[in-house]
Amino acid sequence: MINWSNVTASGHQELDLTPEELQKSKCVLGFIPVVYYSILLCVGVPVNILTAVALSRLACRTKKALYYYLLAVTGSDILSQLFIIFVGFLLETAVFHRDVPALLLHTVSAAEFAANHASIWSTVPLTVDRYVALCHPLLHRQVSYPARTRRIIAAVLTLSLVSGVPFFWWSDMWRNSHPPTALDTVLIWTHVTIIYFLPCSIFLVLNSLIIHTLRMRKRQQCSQDERGPTSAPPRRLGKTTAMLLAITSVFSVLWAPRTVVVIYHLYVSSVHRDWRVHLAYDLSNMLAMLNTAVNFFLYCFVSKPFRGAVRDVVLLRGGPLYPRRALPQQLAPANASISSLYSGNHKRSQRETTPLSPRRARKPS
């Protein structure tokens, strides 16, 4: 981001590099990344906190697994913004110029990867839950309940924390002037597999099955309508499914450039030696971090209950934690019909049990 030395002291001592090779690749963006990440942090953290409060209310009110998964995604996004954007990009890079103890640098790196993995992999059980709900609704009623959802989220967060430990030895692409080592190759391929290839494959397969199932149901409904009118309307793409497709699609688009640049850095040209790769890596990181702040706007655009919960939070109104009961005037027609039915049956039973009057009674012969 800023024009500081991009090589370590050990790089000068261990490698006989020419001054041209030791020269750091220039960052043509200057202070633009610092301004960008500052704005993203100032907007993203409050927006994600607002999202978390609104989703907490919806989760308590409806007990739906959807809101628990979205709450896990939002919490992971907040951790990513704090560790990656605030600590990694702003403090270490822009303020201290990476002039921090190596142990602290590697520890923060492991925390950054753990938060990043949690942010992405929290969306995977949400995709699986939507697939089971749409394609196997009877099974979904049996296996989807709040207690199991919380256990799944806890397992995902724990595995994400463990998966960040190997990246304690992640090589700093901006500082190291030496070519990638065997350890760097293993870590980079592990990173791109965990962060992009594996979750995107799951998203692609399950979303394709969801869309295929909905299309098949629509065709069956159309064929039934041609045979004769039916009372059930055709099943369309629900708002929850549309939200899921939007979240996974935005993630796939925003993280694709960074994945390509990291692999290019590994095999073609390093960030340290080529300013164009440096520029591409800066821009791809900026796009990837944008993913931590856009989900709020997707939720607002798609979900009416979420907009209502956000409105209640902003206006400091305590939303109901449980579904509202029907008002007395709404129950009146039903009570009236029940009472009229009861009164009719009661009168009929009275006519059946009341003895005939003397005038209509037969005289014994």
Cα(first) to Cα(last) distance is 118 Å
Shape: globular
Helix content: over 70%
From the alpha-carbon coordinates, what is the Rg to the nearest angstrom? 31 Å
Listing every helix as H and every strand as E from the N terminus to the C terminus, the arrangement reads HHHHHHHHHHHHHH
* Poorly predicted parts: 1-22, 324-365
Description of the molecule:
Helices cover 73% and strands 0% of the residues. The termini are far apart. It is mainly alpha-helical.
List its salient traits.
365 residues; mainly alpha; 0% strand; disordered C terminus
Please give the structural blueprint.
Elements: H1 9-14, H2 19-22, H3 32-62, H4 65-95, H5 102-121, H6 123-135, H7 137-143, H8 146-163, H9 182-227, H10 239-267, H11 275-290, H12 295-302, H13 304-314, H14 328-353
Summary of the model, kept short:
By secondary structure, the protein is mainly alpha-helical. It contains 14 helices and no strands. The longest helix is centred in the middle third of the chain and has 46 residues, at 182-227.
